[in-house]
Amino acid sequence: MYIDLDFLRPFLSSIYMIDNGENFFRAFSPVSSLLRKIERRQKQKSQVMQPVTMAVLIAVVILFELPCFSTRTNSSSLSAIHRNPVSLSVAETTGNTDEHLTSNFVNMHVFEDVYTIGLYYVQIKIGDSSKPYNLHIDTGSDLTWLPKELYHPHDLQNIQYVRCDEPRCIDVPRGKCKKNTDPCDYKIRYQDEASSEGRIVNDSFTLHLEDGSSISPTLAIGRSTYYSSKELNGQSITEGMLGLGKGRISIISQLHEQGNFANIFGHCLSRNLEDYGFMFIGEDFDYPRCLTWIPMSSDVSNYSLMAEVVYGDHEQSLLGGNQVFVLDSGATDTYFVDLLYKKLLTKIA
């Protein structure tokens, strides 16, 4: 089952952080479980709309109240949030210090294109492009890619293709090779039936650190020769995909492997459509003390949580126990398994 994070924004300004190294999800919410207390919350918040979809159920419980987030002295999501002595650190919570990694972090704006397609994107400069690319942020997939029309359109001779005999090609979805010297091809299909295929290339990413400096690590991305996506077919200003998944080909994993940052990232979705959110990479980002750790499921390839699903005043779980829910910032729809969908319809009918 997939959770579309776009459903979370209407409830409150929200932030989630994912620590890949320790397999934890951190939410700005004083909840002790994801869905166990929904019945009590509905009684306390009688004015809240009766949930009719799983997305609403999940959103109400995960991010219903964020008192400590709303009391920040710096209210602008655009400004840097500096560390203070009372904020928890990753080392304090997980025991993972990653001392060899940089103590700085990247903090970038998250823009919203909710009026047309309904997505979130960041701007990142790749290669020698004169301007940054608008990349759709996607925690549900690993590969970052750009259409060939936009990626080095006038500099084809200098494209650095990844070869089939390079280790990075092993991490590519559906990579096929006839000879070791062939370019590494990829093919990926998304939950909404969108797809992309092309070849893997190496290029530099310009990342601006919070201390004012910048780094330009070389990362593997896709140069798409074919894509089928409503986000990239004239309906949106998004120009490509930023894969933030758990796989080794994701930007987060590559940055961690190169020793640039701890394997941690997060992003904030603004409540106000006219405001900005932000995304950060690295462990030195400051966050409130009330942030709660929620273990992620370790036996799946996505960012997933185990949760029970209850409805209304009923204490009994609709499926009789915990279920796996995938957090997907790139989705515009929420998907349920057939059995859960039918049981939920029966309850609200």
Outline? globular
Number of helices: 7
Distance between the termini: 22 Å
Please tell me the overall pLDDT: 68
**In CATH's first tier, which class of the domain at 98-261 applies?**
Mainly Beta
Strand content: 25-35%
User: What is the CATH superfamily label of the domain at 98-261?
Assistant: Acid Proteases
Could you spell the SSE succession in H and E letters? Answer: EEEHHHHEEEEEHEEEEEHEEEEEH
What is the CATH-assigned architecture of the domain at 98-261? Beta Barrel
- Structural class, please? alpha+beta
How many β-strand runs?
18
How many whole angstroms does the radius of gyration measure? 21 Å
Q: How much helix is in the residues?
A: 10-25%
Q: Main beta sheet, described?
A: 15 strands, mixed
CATH topology of the domain at 98-261: Cathepsin D, subunit A, domain 1
Give unreliable regions as ranges.
4-15, 26-102
